[in-house]
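Side project, low priority. Logging it here so it doesn't get lost.
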Amino acid sequence: MDGFDYSEERPSHKVMSFIWNVLTILMLLGVVCVVGYFLLVFTNPDTILNPLRPQPLPPPVTFPPPPSRHAAYCPPPGRPCQPWRRPKPLRRYRPVPSRRC
């Protein structure tokens, strides 16, 4: 028959498997921490933990109020108001037929 040795694992294998199990658990905890950090920064970019925080927004642009219609359509002081006149229509040119040679 074959001479296989069915003895139990040697003690060094038990120690090595324990070390690999501990390293696996530490790696999984590290992955969970990194994913949690990325989710935190993704959901709240202004957090203190974000090294590349976005710049604060500049203040919104405000435009001055439009001038009143009275001030826009009145002549300067000392000149009388003139009634509104319709502008003259533009001169329309009729097409001229070209001469054939």
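Brief comment: Residues 7 and 13 are 13 Å apart (CA to CA).
Revisit when time allows.
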